[in-house]
């Protein structure tokens, strides 16, 4: 009688199991992953939570996984204490997505739910060439989303309004393309509509993030137990628009909605988002009437925008993809609310349930001006550096300035006083000094950042002494009387 060889077959079966998984993904795993993703959307992206219900049932899991992934990437800068950890986390997502599309998802809820959606897509299409093409398109779009989020992790402002549109195209429009590919629906007209709507959604997300990123950052607790700010304050409005309207970052951080030109700049950016929505509405009317969309699709031929049948039934395709196009509704409603608030993004508009371009705890969303929320004081630093090398003085001043700016502070002024004799000889770091190079810096920062500045200078071997003075009582009316530091002396060494 033939007996199966345990030594021959057992190890082979173990090797064939996907690495990083417990052999297979069970229905319990999928249900747990689905609950996780839906909970994330309900708590942090309620618009997407509602829109998911209008998606075709086979696509709902895909949509939930993609929107949950977008949330994870948006929140990443807030969750890490330094850029290196953020880069490692992004690398994890690159590898996780590659493994998921290779059929070996890691034990991560988003990847498990996306893996389930890919298997469902394969079953719906019978595993033929259409499934392979759709899966390839989905992987392209998801990878582009991660790459774009990685490039914008440092919250750099956009150079131009056109670059903001490119960012929106590579994020929110890209999520819509991936969702359409999972149906599968490859239609130039629907992709064209998704491009305009996604650009509007991306611009709206940046505008909704203005009061979030302009507010002081929430601290992140490092493994050593020290709480450090995760980011610096930022204003992501396009630089060309800010220059045209005379908007200055520091004034926005200090004065909030009363900063000169802020509302005019918000109006100009919001108008571009509204233009995309108007264009999408006009296209829908023309397509339903059996006409051409009225203008060419500017991204045709790029990436996965290749179409075999460009003359397909546009009205039918729009009906199939209409759930995806509903992303336009919350964007249009928010723009209407912004208009009623006279384009003041800090006027108490609802931010809690939308993935603005930074996600922080709800208490940061307040209709009060930012001045009331900025817990900073004005400090004056008088530093004495060992003499003889001006480069060392510049390096120390730059170190202190970078520490303040990275953590949301403001440098009020810097003055180089030069070399003076010390009141009495000072021995420090096994060296005796009779002269020192003085410089003075005034800066606004929180007490925690001020403590970090003191600790940094205390450990600096090139420092002789450092004196710190708190100026004023922290109120804007008081600290505004203090300008940059000046040095008045009649001494021969001045």
UniProtKB/TrEMBL annotation:
<dbReference type="Pfam" id="PF00494">
    <property type="entry name" value="SQS_PSY"/>
</dbReference>
<dbReference type="Pfam" id="PF01250">
    <property type="entry name" value="Ribosomal_S6"/>
</dbReference>
<dbReference type="InterPro" id="IPR035980">
    <property type="entry name" value="Ribosomal_bS6_sf"/>
</dbReference>
<dbReference type="InterPro" id="IPR008949">
    <property type="entry name" value="Isoprenoid_synthase_dom_sf"/>
</dbReference>
<dbReference type="InterPro" id="IPR002060">
    <property type="entry name" value="Squ/phyt_synthse"/>
</dbReference>
<protein>
    <submittedName>
        <fullName>NADH dehydrogenase</fullName>
    </submittedName>
</protein>
<dbReference type="InterPro" id="IPR000529">
    <property type="entry name" value="Ribosomal_bS6"/>
</dbReference>
<dbReference type="InterPro" id="IPR014717">
    <property type="entry name" value="Transl_elong_EF1B/ribsomal_bS6"/>
</dbReference>
<feature type="compositionally biased region" description="Basic and acidic residues">
    <location>
        <begin position="293"/>
        <end position="312"/>
    </location>
</feature>
<comment type="similarity">
    <text>Belongs to the bacterial ribosomal protein bS6 family.</text>
</comment>
<feature type="region of interest" description="Disordered">
    <location>
        <begin position="292"/>
        <end position="312"/>
    </location>
</feature>
